[in-house]
C-alpha cells in the first residue's frame, strides 16, 4: 500500500466528493501504510467521524491519534474519539489561548483559539521530543525557531505571546525521501523541514502535505518560502486548509487536497 492519506475533513469538499460529506474550516487526515494507521488531527467538531463513516472507514482501531497543536480547528473533534484512544501531542496542547490585537499599547482578546477537552478519557502521551510511531512514522516533537512569531496570546491576566510552541508534525520515512504532514505550519515551513531533516538524518524531501499557513503571508515571506522550496525540490506539494488561495498563487506547482480526497505516495 505504501503511504495513503485520506482527507477526512478540510475546509472544502473535493471534486466529485459524496454529497453526504461535510467540509469545515479545519483539518483531519487518516494516514496509513502497510502496518500503521494514524489519525492526524480531528478538525473542529465531530464532522471528521461522520465523514469517516460515510467513506466506509472504521477509526476504532487506529494505531494512534496525533494532534498537531492546540487550536480548536485541529483538536475540537477529540471528544468524539473512543475512550482510551492513544493520543500523542505536546504537553501544552490544552493551554487556553486567544487571537489578540494590540492598540495603543493595550492588548485585547479577539477570539478564543483553544477548546475545552477532557483529555483524562484518553491514553495521553505528552512529549516535547521526537517519538517513533510504528516502523516508518515519527512525531517531530517541538520544532525550534530562532525568532518565533506570535500568533496570539495565552489566557490569564498577563498577555503572554503565543508562538505555537506546541506545534509538531508527522514524518513518514519512505524510500523516496521524507513525507512531512503539517497541521498549520505556524512554526514556518523552512523551520519544519530543517527540523525533520535533522532528527531523521534524511535530507531528501519527497512531499509536503497539509496546512502551510500562507493565506495572509506577506509577499516577502512568500518569496522566501518559494525560494526555500525550490532549493529543497520536493516532488509533491499538497497544500490545504490554511495554505489559502494566496499561497497557491505563489506556488503554482501545488495541489489542494480537500474533504474526501485520497492521496498516495
Automatic annotation (TrEMBL):
Which residue numbers delimit the Metallo-beta-lactamase domain?
25-241
What CDD domains does the record point to? DHPS-like_MBL-fold
At the highest ranks, the source species' classification is: Bacteria, Pseudomonadati, Pseudomonadota, Gammaproteobacteria, Enterobacterales
Q: Which organism is it from?
A: Salmonella enterica subsp. enterica serovar Strasbourg
Q: Name one GO molecular function term.
A: transferase activity
Q: By its UniProt entry, which PANTHER family does this protein fall under?
A: METALLO-BETA-LACTAMASE SUPERFAMILY PROTEIN, METALLO-BETA-LACTAMASE SUPERFAMILY PROTEIN (AFU_ORTHOLOGUE AFUA_3G07630)
Enumerate the SMART domains for this protein: Lactamase_B
Name the UniProt record assigns to this protein? MBL fold metallo-hydrolase
Pfam families registered for this protein in UniProt: Lactamase_B
Q: Which InterPro entries match?
A: DHPS-like_MBL-fold, Metallo-B-lactamas, Metallo-beta-lactamase_dom, RibonucZ/Hydroxyglut_hydro
Keyword field: Hydrolase
